[in-house]
Amino acid sequence: MDATPLTVLIVCDTFSPDVNGAANFAVRLAAGLTGRGHDVHVMAQSHNNRQGAYQETHAGETFTVHRLLSARWPKHDWIRFAYPWRINANSRRIIKAIKPDVVHIQSHLLSGRGASTEAVKLGVRIVATNHFMPENLLEFTGLPKFIWPTAVKITWKDATRILSRAAEVTTPTRRAADYLEQMTGLRGVHAISCGIRASDYTPSFEPRTQNRIVFCGRVTGEKQLDVLLDAVAVLPEDLDVQVDIVGDGDQRRPLESQAARLGIDDRVTFHGRVTDTRLRRVLTEGTVFAMPSIAELQSIATMEAMASGLPIVAANAMALPHLVRDEENGYLFPPGDVAALADRIERVLRLPEEDLLVMKNASLRAIEPHDIETTLNVFESLYRGETIEDPVTEVAPLTGKLREQFRSLRRRVRGTAHWPEGLESRAVR
């Protein structure tokens, strides 16, 4: 592989301090590439009414972030967008100044649209990653619901036009890639995991002292947290569950009211936005991770939970089945089905400790192919115009023999060892 350092411009419509999958991926990508010696620049919206190029430190690495003047979308509590009437001029100015080898857009929306327009004019290679699903934005447009189907068609037609400018198009999972090809008519979309550094997270193999259900992510409508609260309300009292909801969003107050109405507010903690350290501690202390969302192209939050050794109960929607296998590392349930969600959570919480340990180890095993270093390798190759094969992120089903080996593992807190048959893991004997 060519080791010559690259100059890379990553173009975002959402970036730190925003907390969401697309922003988190962009941070990890920029930091990872910087750590490998590349000259990384990020173009993103400003959050403080200042425009300029700043040296910023994210995920332990320092790189240049070109902040653009922006405005908050009035129907959303945190979304900000760079001024659209200046995006082309700003994109051209930045591209001409830094002379990137590649422009990597993270969406077809405002910043990606402007940067790709100017990159085409200047003859700069474009790579595009799609994190977009209309369901994530339509509820904040103010459009009446009867118009949504037409809006979706128009949006995908627009996405096709912008993404077609890219030499390579990626999205986080094969299911998401198939969906993108179906909606746009594009072909050859690569399935490249957002990647995660699993060693940043700490599974616990201590016997549980309480049953904790964890969710982390944006507290918005498509996450369907109302379904989770309804499910918690019908769980048997003897389970004595506690619920940790980490994250913030426009649905927090309605959900707090719902928890009070259901009589479970004393068992549900809304943590809001927390530090990475606090998030990892909540995950370590959890018993099961719940993801009822219907609009996940990968779900970095679910991957973080898997790296923390948690069984997963997730909606059988979009890319979540790519991460969750029934009776191996958790359960899937029909989206929106309160009774089914409650049933799957109860199944996990009633597992004997040795069977719970099997699910914990299965989550750790399933997350290994999503290593961030593999993701960085693939994007480096795409930036250079090299032919790639999409990484395989599926793991083989648990065999009876391996399942029994997992059952026989003995706990040892926060140690390291090796999986049976040579597979590396943070599970312990």
From TrEMBL:
<dbReference type="Pfam" id="PF00534">
    <property type="entry name" value="Glycos_transf_1"/>
</dbReference>
<feature type="domain" description="Glycosyltransferase subfamily 4-like N-terminal">
    <location>
        <begin position="19"/>
        <end position="197"/>
    </location>
</feature>
<dbReference type="InterPro" id="IPR028098">
    <property type="entry name" value="Glyco_trans_4-like_N"/>
</dbReference>
<dbReference type="Pfam" id="PF13439">
    <property type="entry name" value="Glyco_transf_4"/>
</dbReference>
<keyword id="KW-0808">Transferase</keyword>
<dbReference type="InterPro" id="IPR001296">
    <property type="entry name" value="Glyco_trans_1"/>
</dbReference>
<keyword id="KW-0328">Glycosyltransferase</keyword>
<feature type="domain" description="Glycosyl transferase family 1">
    <location>
        <begin position="206"/>
        <end position="355"/>
    </location>
</feature>
<dbReference type="InterPro" id="IPR050194">
    <property type="entry name" value="Glycosyltransferase_grp1"/>
</dbReference>
<protein>
    <recommendedName>
        <fullName>D-inositol 3-phosphate glycosyltransferase</fullName>
    </recommendedName>
</protein>
